[in-house]
Design goal:
Two copies of one chain form a homodimer. By secondary structure, chain A is an alpha/beta fold. Helix content of chain A is 45%, strand content 15%. Chain A has a six-stranded parallel sheet, sandwiched between helices. In chain A, helix 1 packs across helix 2, helix 1 packs across helix 3 and helix 10 crosses helix 11. The relative contact order of chain A is 0.11. Chains A and B meet through helix 4, helix 5, strand 2, helix 6 and helix 10 of A and helix 4, helix 5, strand 2, helix 6 and helix 10 of B. Chain A binds a DNA duplex (16 and 16 nucleotides) through helix 2 and helix 4.
DNA sequence: TTGTATGCGTTATCAT
DNA sequence: ATGATAACGCATACAA
């Protein structure tokens, strides 16, 4: 039924090794004429080498394992896409695991990936303590942490400047003359969330503006959480904030929905700046002014770091902190927001 | 460096086979006391069986290959998530390939998946002719086609009732008294697109309403294409349509953006019904009334069909056509659209 | 109840 | 330039 290498060798009248040599283009040369015969036999039998056997032999699978916290979060979906792109370009295929924000499932995926002998692991840690770290270290396989910084030495990481970006976004709000600024923050137990809140606070402090605890909401990422937080912040009869910094585009989309239902005008009544730069941010109502992450570079550097460590086990694990850039659209209240089409060309949609 | 089974056996003072027996719980029993020793040795050496070697031996990888047309399309992203979920529940891990709407890349992924000995392939065909079909058939591995019907017998498929759903959506528009109905359709060369257009046409014909060619636009899926199509349909000075059926939520989001820029009021000036039911549809402005696909069931039946064929090679390939359901929100102009929160509970967001 | 031995399909080393 | 052969790490049939 299944055709093996020896069948090809037999048909071509050569030894099995020769078949490999012609198929792999090495490590040894083979006479042009024999090569022809082998190729013909391969064709005739429709021979496909067994990748598993090959992997067992050469001790490489050309496979990368990717674990993301939550596939239904568009940010992680885009990050995953960028990583897959970079992996494909480098000849690798990726095994993906969706942790669904579940610590145990995250660990389960890391474990099966290791068991399946992936050549490297790309980990975007779920919130809370990351239980699978020791397991990864013990594995002696290269691995890289993305997006959510982990406080460990000797681990390669690809992060963005969450603090600086949040500060820049907040300063943009301040530049618009807004002073009563609220904040929809992410969960307390994830790094980017903490850093973004800190950046927001820093920019505010620097301008001498207070951020009372009553104006910040630590809520999960997700549209619904953003919606509820905004409902809570703006629904009451008390004096409304005139600006809102949101830790993620997804939450911001929820907040915009709340504004629509509450009759709060954006950007007139409240200016909004958020964070991430997912594709959808250019199509919300109004289009979101947001601190945009360099998805392409995140993907490239992520697999780049992995490949570097695979090539040289002793290489210093690199940690990159990439810049984010302000994409001005309409929620901040800028005079002449770029036309929609140019916002699109801004790398938002492929 | 790496610890093998024989190392464990040696430490435990047993033969390698015994190690397998205790780890795999069979096929042979082992004395409780020896079992203890083996487990202790496994623990002490931190032994992890090599999945590749295991797969080579048992001829199964517990891996499924998934090829999607375009990972940046939220619909496929959600479908992929649902499939991963079902696969995980069944103990399988998924290798994902993003074809980026590229025929060659799709084939390349199918090929490497087969080479890597996946236990089955989940294929969501890219548009145009599907070149990898013969290869899949020749492979003798089970495979399932999702979402985009393929005109072949003996292939398992999981589809939705595109035609019926589109007809229902269009009838809903008609029920609102709209008569000048336009259509943003998908690409001509993909099945769901054709079927949805046909359903829309059928409902219109049934009501005696004409659909002039000037009111239909065949454009790619994607927000930007939807935006441009709506700009085109509604930007001119001629009499505007009073309703719009859109082949996908993504395109509809783009159309809503166009309406916002053109000052066209939705649903007052134009009522909209679209198709897919992606999470974001509940958060657009206004929230989209859309024909919602049963993502969970699509995932379950997709891997279900695969497992069925794996269990019994001779089993008839099943083809399921799942129903879609109208999720009434605000773009259609219904009197009492359900409150936002309940739309959420409608299975839109996890 | 346990040890021995063979094979899975490949690659790579060693002879020829 | 080519043929034989030994691993790779594991699972299991068979012998003990």
């Amino acid at each position: 039924m299944v055709v093996r290498r020896r069948d090809v060798a037999e048909l071509a009248g050569v030894s099995p090794a020769v078949v490999s040599y012609v198929l792999n283009g090495g490590p040894r040369g083979v006479a042009p004429e024999t090569k022809e015969r082998v190729l013909a036999a391969v064709q005739q039998l429709n021979y496909r080498p067994n990748g598993i056997a090959r992997s067992l032999r050469i001790n490489r699978t050309m496979t990368l394992g990717l674990v993301i916290p939550d596939a239904s979060n568009p940010f992680f979906a885009e990050l995953a896409r960028a990583l897959e792109e970079a992996a494909f370009a480098a000849g690798y295929t990726v095994l993906v695991g969706n942790a669904t924000d579940n610590e145990e499932r995250q660990t389960a995926y890391v474990r099966t990936f290791l068991q399946r002998q992936v050549d490297g692991v790309l980990l975007v840690p779920a919130h809370g303590p990351v239980a699978c770290l020791p397991e990864l270290q013990a594995s002696k396989k290269p691995w890289v942490v993305l997006d959510r910084r982990v406080d460990l030495d000797d681990v390669a990481q690809v992060l963005v400047d969450n603090r600086g970006g949040a500060a820049e976004g907040t300063r943009h709000l301040l530049a618009h003359g807004r002073r009563r600024i609220a904040c929809v923050a992410g969960p307390r137990d994830v790094m980017p969330s903490q850093d973004r809140t800190a950046g927001c606070r820093a920019a505010l402090a620097e301008a001498g503006v207070r951020l009372p605890a009553s104006l910040v909401r630590h809520v999960p990422f997700g549209r619904r959480a953003g919606y509820l937080a905004a409902m809570d912040l703006f629904g009451a009869t008390r004096r409304r904030p005139d600006a809102l910094f949101v830790a993620s585009d997804e939450q911001a989309v929820g907040a915009l929905r709340a504004f629509a239902e509450l009759g709060v005008a954006c950007p007139d009544d409240v200016a909004v700046v958020s964070f991430d730069g997912i594709a959808d941010a250019a199509y919300s109502f109004p289009p979101l002014t947001t601190m945009t992450q360099p998805f392409g570079r995140l993907g490239q550097e992520g697999v780049g770091h992995l490949l570097a460590r695979m090539a040289d086990q002793a290489a210093e694990p690199e940690v990159s902190v990439l810049p984010v850039s302000l994409a001005v659209r309409e929620t901040c209240g800028c005079e002449n927001p770029p036309a929609h089409t140019s916002a699109d060309a801004n790398g938002q949609e492929r």
